[in-house]
């Protein structure tokens, strides 16, 4: 443990060197601007009006200007403002109902003031932590790493949200993703608050040893500020991170700050690959595409049988979604990746395309499909699955999309309501990931795998049930004491032979997605929202966060 701390926590000389490098890198003006930002935030919290916005190109001296990441352009609106806009729309719809549901001995005006106050509490992010720390690279040079961790709400604890490694990040993006995580958890009844973290690096530019040092140091910085812990804040993998990174995080936390905590390894989730549990996007699409009322509005028939679809992103979300839709009878006519797209109106087999990509490192050149020169988002199809990074659909290209159903498998820039198009929102569709993380977190706290205490008992119960039926039939219909064998079907035999932990988690995920979809549909019907499940999801999230007991302090 002492060796680990010496390797991660710099001594006095290291600290002096790190501070000198930091000052030489950003300049003293950056410290002044940071202080000004803090004063502005404090003034805003005290009720003073916010400072006027900076003009384009006039970023404070010595401070990085993330204009491309967070520019508020007409074609690419500010991410966090867009999320807040949808929240405001949901609040305007459900506000009167929240007032009516209050059963307190207060006047009508007092109730309205209470509801308005709680809705104001729900909207902003509670904590935004900005970090800078030095690391020594393998070549001997020093570099200052920047990172963020945002906690949107502690109406439920711990907070939950992934850690992504990307150079294209900003405080605005992290705040927006943390807000979305809070609302996702509410939609699927997962008892977490929302959070998000990002480290501003391109992992391809660092060795494995350097990435380990960055991850471990970032973990310690979070721990020193009480931004990580099994009951405080639980990170997970996200873009460019995986089970390797969360293993480093868990080891660092349990070896230092959490060495006394029996639940220390529950400080993160995502230890193992998700057992192909990205089928959450399939379950989300399935619940809406089987709803006859929605399909009739779109002029479609329920089910996957005669549907065509396009997948934009052939990774951890896109590939499993393609597999499941193909298995249930839908036909994939196009797949898009960052380096290009392929198209075949007769259909693309997911297994063949996966094998080709594993062999060649790209989907381009796949012999059973043509390279598509245009935008794969604009291909004529029934279902468009957005399974890549954010910001794929904007105001300029959205009108050219021909799909009748848009499934936001990734966090998108919050598409506005489209005419005669149903957008299955990321607020619901992408919430399957945090649902599985919730199951894993509970398993880590319980220190026992799912089903270990019940599998054998359930098998014996099923066996005795079949034997009881057989004996009853033999007593009633058996001739001369003959047997009446009960032969279970193959499907039932698989079940009574014992479900695996994967089967249990799959079942829990499917049930969660089904219940949440029904709640969204009922909410849309109650408030007459038509083909707008996104607003219905926000309304439902607001109701649940409001009822969680958010109070004035």
Quick structural summary:
The chain is built from 19 helices and 12 strands. A 7-stranded mixed sheet has the order 9-8-7-6-10-11-12. Strands 1-2-4-3-5 form a 5-stranded mixed sheet.
Explain this structure to me?
This protein is of the alpha/beta class and 553 residues long. It has a domain at 454-498. 46% of the residues lie in helices and 12% in strands. The protein has 19 helices and twelve strands. It has helices at residues 2-8, 12-26, 28-45, 67-70, 79-101, 108-122, 171-187, 208-224, 243-255, 280-289, 292-298, 318-327, 350-360, 426-429, 432-446, 455-477, 490-496, 501-526, 533-547, and strands spanning 127-136, 142-151, 159-165, 193-199, 233-237, 308-312, 331-337, 340-343, 370-371, 383-386, 405-408, 422-424. The strands form two sheets. A seven-stranded mixed sheet has the order 9-8-7-6-10-11-12. Strands 1-2-4-3-5 form a five-stranded mixed sheet. It is globular, with a radius of gyration of 26 Å. The model is unreliable at 1-75 (pLDDT under 50). Residues 281-549 form the Glutamate/phenylalanine/leucine/valine/L-tryptophan dehydrogenase C-terminal domain. This is Glutamate dehydrogenase 1, mitochondrial. InterPro entries: Aminoacid_DH-like_N_sf (IPR046346), Glu/Leu/Phe/Val/Trp_DH (IPR006095), Glu/Leu/Phe/Val/Trp_DH_C (IPR006096), Glu/Leu/Phe/Val/Trp_DH_dimer (IPR006097), NAD(P)-bd_dom_sf (IPR036291), NAD_bind_Glu_DH (IPR033922). Residues 43-74 are annotated as: Disordered. Residues 48-59 have a biased composition (Pro residues).
């Amino acid at each position: 443990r002492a060796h680990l701390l010496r390797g991660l926590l710099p001594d006095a000389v290291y600290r002096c060197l790190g501070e000198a490098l930091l000052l030489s890198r950003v300049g003293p003006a950056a410290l002044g601007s940071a202080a000004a930002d803090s004063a502005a935030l404090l003034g805003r919290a005290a009720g003073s009006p916010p400072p006027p916005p900076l003009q384009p190109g006039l970023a404070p001296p010595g401070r990085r200007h993330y204009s491309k990441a967070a520019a508020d352009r007409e074609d690419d609106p500010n991410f966090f403002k867009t999320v807040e806009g949808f929240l405001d729309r949901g609040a305007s719809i459900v506000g009167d109902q929240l007032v009516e549901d209050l059963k307190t001995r207060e006047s009508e005006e007092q109730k309205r003031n209470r509801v308005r106050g709680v809705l104001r509490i729900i909207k902003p992010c509670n904590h935004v932590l900005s970090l800078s720390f030095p690391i020594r690279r393998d070549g001997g040079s020093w570099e200052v790493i920047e990172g963020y961790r945002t906690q949107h709400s502690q109406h439920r604890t711990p907070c939950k949200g992934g850690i992504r490694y990307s150079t294209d990040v900003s405080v605005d993006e992290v705040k927006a993703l943390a807000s979305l995580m809070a609302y996702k958890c509410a939609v699927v009844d997962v008892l977490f608050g929302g959070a998000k973290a990002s480290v501003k690096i391109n992992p391809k530019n660092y060795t494995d040893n350097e990435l380990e040092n960055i991850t471990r140091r970032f973990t310690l910085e979070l721990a020193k500020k009480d931004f990580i812990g099994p009951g405080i804040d639980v990170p997970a993998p996200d873009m460019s991170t995986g089970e390797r990174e969360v293993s480093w995080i868990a080891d660092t936390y349990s070896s230092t700050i959490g060495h006394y905590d029996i639940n220390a390894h529950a400080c993160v989730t995502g230890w193992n690959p998700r057992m192909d549990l990205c089928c959450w996007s399939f379950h989300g699409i399935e619940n809406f595409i089987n709803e006859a009322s929605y399909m009739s509005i779109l002029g479609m028939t329920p089910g996957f049988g005669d549907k065509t679809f396009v997948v934009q992103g052939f990774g951890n979300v896109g590939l499993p979604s393609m597999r499941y839709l193909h298995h249930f009878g839908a036909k994939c006519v196009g797949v898009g990746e960052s380096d290009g797209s392929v198209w075949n109106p007769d259909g693309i087999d997911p297994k063949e395309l996966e094998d080709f990509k594993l062999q060649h490192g790209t989907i381009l050149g796949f012999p059973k499909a043509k390279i598509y020169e245009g935008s794969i988002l604009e291909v004529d199809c029934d279902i468009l699955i957005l399974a890549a990074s954010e910001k794929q659909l904007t105001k300029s290209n959205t009108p050219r999309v021909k799909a009748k159903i848009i499934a936001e498998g990734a966090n998108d820039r919050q598409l506005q309501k489209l005419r005669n198009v149903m957008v299955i929102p990321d607020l619901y569709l992408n919430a399957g990931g945090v649902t599985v993380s919730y199951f894993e977190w509970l398993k880590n706290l319980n220190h026992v795998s799912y089903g270990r205490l019940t599998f054998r008992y359930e098998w014996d119960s099923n066996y005795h049930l079949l034997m009881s039926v057989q004996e009853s039939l033999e007593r009633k219909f058996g001739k001369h004491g003959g047997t009446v064998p009960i032969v279970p079907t193959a499907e039932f035999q698989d079940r009574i032979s014992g479900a695996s932990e994967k089967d249990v988690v799959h079942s829990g995920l499917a049930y969660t997605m089904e219940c949440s979809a029904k709640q969204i549909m009922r909410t849309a019907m109650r408030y007459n929202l038509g083909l707008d499940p996104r607003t219905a999801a926000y309304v439902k999230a607001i109701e649940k966060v409001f009822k969680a007991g958010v109070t004035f302090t």
